[in-house]
Specification:
The chain has 687 residues and is of the alpha/beta class. The chain is 28% helix and 15% strand. The termini are far apart. The structure holds CIS-heme D hydroxychlorin gamma-spirolactone 17R, 18S.
Length: 687
């Protein structure tokens, strides 16, 4: 009989392509010849302390974890590059924003905020959008979110807000969800959260993909030019694929079917060369004009409506390389708002000021000391010369005796940077030391109303449904009432609609009249649309019409979409003409919520089989209920009938034909590009 070792050897030999060129060693470089059995006294005796290889291996394992980020623990990231369209030298001396020939390497980490590192991607939450630019003048970190405002105005409230939104302390429930009492208790008592809560209850909190999210610097920053003149600036990232979201029912199912949905999407898109792109835009406000708005530029719960200051596109970022190692790069990247380059400066936004303290502080704990800038992902491409010394995990070996400034023993090195140096904007400040929020921060509602007014009907429905869901999970009636009271300051119809769903007496009248202003740029109805990179399921079984499959597959690929052939089993299916059709995935391993659209090709036998397959029928029904584009060719319509999908509602994204041709693919491509068809009457399914 073959021993276990012989079996293993045979299998390894079967898979080994080339002889391995590296040899296993301990951390000290000592060659290791055996790593399956520990050193014991006899074959069945006790393990020996002397086994240094065993002890090193286990010790290293015991110490593999570092503290996860206190917020934004779950994330994924990619490398890319940024290039300017036009120089902003008039406003800033940052090389990055002046040199149109420079290709600046970037690293971007996307994240959810509330959940632990192992939580699901598709929860209702804000998404982090943190970008590092490795510039010649040093690292610039634009640590933003996918929503342009924030929950609080002053950083001193951040621990309160985070404690309220995180799982409750007595039972650590619920994970990665804002639908619980402590968050809404905080919200009802802290009305400055109202504007951000509108965003959080909107579809923005459920992105279809990291590749389809906007990004915002949130705070007002300051650009400073060579002459020292300052200009206020807000940063915007706009995805080339448009800003698109999942529907709520779908997100919850995806959380179970593929908790790595957004992470996988980013990874696979880059691996396949479908590299995501964003345009960087700026809103510029000359110094001295900051008082022209009816809100305070230093208040991070406010946007500058694009109608008041247009977003000027200034450059483009492409993400084109996945990290090699998640821990070393994604987990160890240490963003810090204070990583700013000459020409980019701060303002007195009290949220921004608090962050300037927090990020460096948190990295010291998370990465175990002050030498984390030496980790490869954190190293600037600019040279680093200074007198910082020692500390845990020092990897540099300074060769000078002079670790101080000024010095003569080290030749005076490094010399001070002179004109190239970062100089802080010499803002004039004067005043008494007080703890008081400025009156200019007091309006917590008008921009929440602006957001509400800007939404399409379907977006409004989703917002009401989200408030009802979240408050429906809140046990304390007075908390529900408090939230409705706040909403009545935003819009009376909104407050009534929410109240009616959560057992709260609807307010009788509006507190103030809705100002009626809107900003079309805030609605996802007005975003870019494209079928490119969309995942489209083609459902087949034995007897499928090969022409239908080919035309659909080729046509969708030409549109830049990503078709996959799904069948009841893996391998190949036999087409009606006898040809073999390669299956991409078997139906039991996937689900409609993981696709953007579905097509059912003709072929009587294929469609008969699928119509009897509960998974295939459910696939189509669910895709319809989630408002996705649905296509059918020839007999494929029969599956639509079984799945109770109305036939040929082109206006609602159902495209059927007997003619497998380019015209079908074009119409179906348009239906996919529309993203979702919210005109459908599917009230039975919650949005
Ligand atoms: Fe953060 N935030 N934050 N934050 N934040 C962190 O830093 C903090 C805020 C944002 O992918 C932490 O490295 C305070 C606004 C992103 O690694 C921590 C305040 C915005 C990321 C921290 C804020 C953000 C973080 C946790 C209120 C959008 C993930 C781990 C004053 C503009 C970065 C870490 C990554 C991470 C503190 C508010 C975005 C604790 C005190 C506003 C995208 O330092």
């Amino acid at each position: 009989m073959a021993s276990q070792d012989d079996d293993k050897q045979r299998r390894l030999e079967r898979y080994r392509l080339d002889p391995c060129s590296s040899e296993m060693t301990t951390d000290q470089g000592i060659p290791v010849g055996e790593t399956d059995n520990s050193l014991t006294v006899g074959e069945r005796g006790p393990t020996l302390m002397e086994d240094f290889h065993f002890r090193e291996k286990i010790t290293r394992f015991d110490h593999e974890r570092i503290p996860e980020r206190v917020v934004h623990a779950r994330g994924s990231a990619a490398y890319g590059h940024f290039q300017l369209y036009e120089s902003l030298a008039e406003y800033t001396r940052a090389d990055l924003l002046c040199d149109t020939s420079a290709v600046t390497p970037t690293f971007v980490r996307f994240s959810t905020v509330g959940g632990s590192r192992g939580s699901a991607d598709t929860v209702r939450d804000v998404r982090g959008f943190a970008t590092r630019f490795y510039t010649k003048q040093g690292n610039f970190d634009l640590v933003g979110n996918n929503m342009p405002v924030f929950f609080i105005q002053d950083g001193i409230k951040f621990p309160d807000f985070v404690h309220a939104v995180k799982p409750e302390p007595h039972n650590e429930i619920p994970q990665a969800s804002s639908a619980h009492d402590t968050l809404w208790d905080f919200v009802q008592l802290q009305p400055e959260t109202t504007h951000m809560m509108m965003w959080l209850m909107s579809d923005r909190a459920l992105p279809r993909s990291f590749r389809m999210m906007q990004g915002f610097g949130v705070h007002t920053f300051r650009l400073v030019n060579e002459a020292g003149v300052g200009t206020f600036v807000k940063f915007h990232w706009t995805p080339m694929l448009g800003t698109h979201s999942l529907v709520w029912d779908e997100t919850q199912k995806v959380a179970g079917k593929d908790p790595d949905f957004n992470r996988r999407d980013l990874w696979e898109a880059i691996e396949a060369g479908r590299c995501p792109e964003w345009e960087l835009g700026v809103q510029l406000v000359p110094e001295g004009e900051e008082d022209r708005f009816d809100f305070d530029l230093l208040d991070a719960t406010k946007i500058i409506p694009e109608e008041e200051v247009p977003v000027r596109p200034i450059g483009r970022m492409v993400l084109d390389r996945n990290p090699d190692n998640f821990f070393a790069e994604v987990e160890q990247v240490a963003f810090h708002l204070g990583n700013a380059v000459p020409g980019i400066d701060f303002t007195d936004d009290p949220l921004l000021q608090a962050r300037l303290f927090s990020y460096l502080d948190t990295q010291l704990l998370r990465l175990g000391g002050p030498n984390f800038p030496q980790l490869p992902v954190n190293q600037p491409i600019a040279q680093v010369n200074n007198h910082q010394m020692d500390g845990p995990h020092q990897t540099r070996i300074p060769t000078t005796r002079a670790s101080y400034h000024p010095n003569s023993l080290g030749g005076g090195c490094p010399a001070l940077a002179g004109e190239r140096a970062y100089t802080h904007y010499p803002e004039h400040v004067a005043g008494r030391k007080i703890r008081k929020r400025s009156d200019s921060f007091a309006d917590h509602y008008s921009q929440a109303t602006l957001f509400w007014n800007s939404m399409a009907d379907w977006e409004k429905k989703h917002i009401v449904a989200a408030f009802r869901f979240e408050l429906g999970k809140v046990e304390h009636q007075h908390v529900r009432e408090g939230v409705v009271e706040n909403l009545n300051h935003v819009d009376h119809t909104l407050a009534v609609a929410v109240a009616e769903g959560v057992g709260v007496e609807p307010p009788e009248k509006a507190v103030t009249d809705n100002h009626g202003r809107g900003s079309p740029a805030l609605s996802q109805a007005n975003t870019a649309h494209s079928p490119a990179t969309r995942k489209i399921a083609i459902l087949v079984a034995d007897g499928v019409n090969a022409d239908d499959v080919e035309v659909t597959w080729d046509g969708l690929r030409d549109l830049g979409a990503q078709p996959e052939i799904l069948a009841p089993r893996d391998g190949t299916v036999r087409a009606a003409d006898g040809a073999a059709v390669q299956v991409t995935r078997s139906l039991p391993t996937v689900d409609s919520v993981l696709y953007d659209a579905v097509v059912v090709p003709g072929g009587a036998e294929s469609v008969r089989t699928l119509s009897r397959d509960g998974k295939a029928v459910h696939f189509v029904t669910e895709a319809y209920k989630h408002y996705k584009a649905i296509g059918a060719l020839g007999e494929g319509r029969d599956l639509l009938f079984t799945a109770r999908v109305p036939d040929d509602r082109l206006d609602q994204g159902v495209v059927v034909t007997d003619q497998p041709d380019g015209a079908f693919v074009e119409r179906f491509g348009d239906a996919v590009a529309a993203h979702r068809h919210f005109g459908r009457a599917t009230e039975s399914v919650p949005a």
